[in-house]
């Protein structure tokens, strides 16, 4: 069974800072990896999808990298804003779909 | 992006009753859908994989007789919590993959419903 770990569990930064969220997974036999954000009491919003053959994906201020062989992915958020405050989840997809424990991000105005 | 809906968005029921939650893919077909449960301040836990035309696959520790899953069509999966108890109170979320046509496609992107908040009194 895939085990997914996200570090740090919680992060609080002042507005404008760049930050990195880390995700590690135990089973490298994945088809792709997605990053999501979840606002309190809400569903999940897909941020980025990296196919297994790709090394990174970018969307606006977000950049995600994937090193499948070492079981790692990072999500880089540039110039953080208060609206970025949410829980961020990574999900490597193999035969099933497992979530990381999440990183709770607070961006302080 | 694709749209997945869930109904109801919230439900309150008495202990011992059954509750049905619907998950629909509105603009694409999904032969597979996934059901998750999320307790407060915890991550999502996969409960089961719903397969159109065949039985659902349950994760270890999830009672299949308690959480009945029916994948009625290529756009609809239902989760029925039977004889609900207060400990079943949780946030239930479904997802459906869209993209490569096969579950194992690297192009598959998961789209999530908005979730259903279940409270059992």
Number of DSSP strand runs of chain A = 10
- Mean pLDDT across all residues of chain A, rounded? 92
Q: Which structural category do the helix and sheet elements of chain A fall into?
A: mainly beta
N-to-C order of helices and strands of chain A? EEEEEEEEEE
Describe this structure in words.
The complex is a heterodimer of chains A (109) and B (121). Chain A has 109 residues and is mainly beta. Chain A has strands spanning 4-7, 10-14, 19-25, 32-38, 44-51, 56-59, 62-67, 72-77, 86-93, 103-108. In chain A, the strands form 2 sheets. In chain A, strands 1-3-8-7-6 form a 5-stranded antiparallel sheet, with no helix packed on it. A 5-stranded mixed sheet of chain A has the order 2-10-9-4-5, with no helix packed on it. Chain A is globular, with a radius of gyration of 13 Å. Chain A starts with a strand and ends with a strand. Chain B has 121 residues and is an all-beta fold. The termini of chain B are far apart. Classes of the chains: A mainly beta (109), B mainly beta (121). At the A-B interface, β4, β5 and β9 of A face β5, β9 and β10 of B.
């Amino acid at each position: 069974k895939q085990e997914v770990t996200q570090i740090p569990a919680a992060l609080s930064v002042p507005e404008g800072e760049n930050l990195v969220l880390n995700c590690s997974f135990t089973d490298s036999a994945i088809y792709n990896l997605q990053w999501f954000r979840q606002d309190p009491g809400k569903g999940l919003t897909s941020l980025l999808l990296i196919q297994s053959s790709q090394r990174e994906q970018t969307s606006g201020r977000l950049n995600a990298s994937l090193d499948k062989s070492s079981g790692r992915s990072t999500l880089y958020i540039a110039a953080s804003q208060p609206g970025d405050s949410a829980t961020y989840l990574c999900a490597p997809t193999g035969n099933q779909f497992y979530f990381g424990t999440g990183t709770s991000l607070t961006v302080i105005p | 992006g694709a749209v997945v809906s869930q109904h109801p968005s919230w439900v309150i029921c008495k202990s011992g009753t059954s509750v049905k939650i619907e998950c629909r893919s509105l603009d694409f077909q999904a032969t597979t859908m996934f059901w998750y449960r999320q307790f407060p301040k915890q991550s999502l836990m996969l409960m089961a994989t719903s397969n159109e035309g065949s039985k659902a696959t349950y994760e270890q520790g999830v009672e299949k007789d308690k959480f009945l899953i029916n994948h009625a069509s290529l756009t609809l999966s239902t989760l029925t919590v039977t004889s609900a108890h207060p400990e079943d109170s949780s946030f239930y979320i479904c997802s459906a993959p869209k993209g490569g046509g096969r579950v194992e496609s690297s192009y598959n992107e998961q789209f999530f419903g908005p979730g259903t908040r279940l409270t059992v009194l």
